[in-house]
């Protein structure tokens, strides 16, 4: 029996890399969202949420990864890049994705209350904006969802027990 060939260019593979970034966020008691940006089959940016660490509301994984990718490409336009992120982007991140003109967004867990890639709204394909990104949802959904649910369950338990998050 031969070993299966690992497709290093598959959505599953790159979402696995985003999940590794999300785990790094979780270790730092940040909301466990991770992101990678891929260009021509290579990862050019990796990031995880750092809102609490940096005391910066804009330090979402997607925003940090976009800045890294812009530096790697040498331009603010990321027209030939794909973003892999463990949770559906929020409106802020979706706006930045549209402005950088990312070709494609792949996410794991949807966010029906606050997601801006088809959950609560769809800014990534809004008809009057100057760019629309292709969207692939639900890649490694269970792993992404479980990581988020476990994190928030821990936050709620800590709050019930009177332990401040981050202590």
Plain-language structure description:
This protein has a five-stranded mixed beta sheet with strand order 2-1-3-4-5. It has helices at residues 11-27, 51-54, 61-73, 91-100, 141-160; strands at residues 34-39, 42-48, 81-87, 104-109, 134-137. The N and C termini lie far apart (50 Å). The protein contains five helices and five strands, in the order αββααβαββα. It is globular and about 50 Å long. The mean pLDDT is 93. By secondary structure, it is of the alpha/beta class.
Features:
5-stranded mixed β-sheet, 167 residues, 5 helices, alpha/beta
Distance between the termini: 50 Å
Strand content: 15-25%
Order of helices and strands: HEEHHEHEEH
Dominant shape: globular
Strand and helix map with partners:
Blueprint: H1 11-27, E1 34-39, E2 42-48, H2 51-54, H3 61-73, E3 81-87, H4 91-100, E4 104-109, E5 134-137, H5 141-160
Question: How would you briefly describe this protein structure?
Answer:
By secondary structure, the protein is of the alpha/beta class. Helix content is 38%, strand content 18%.
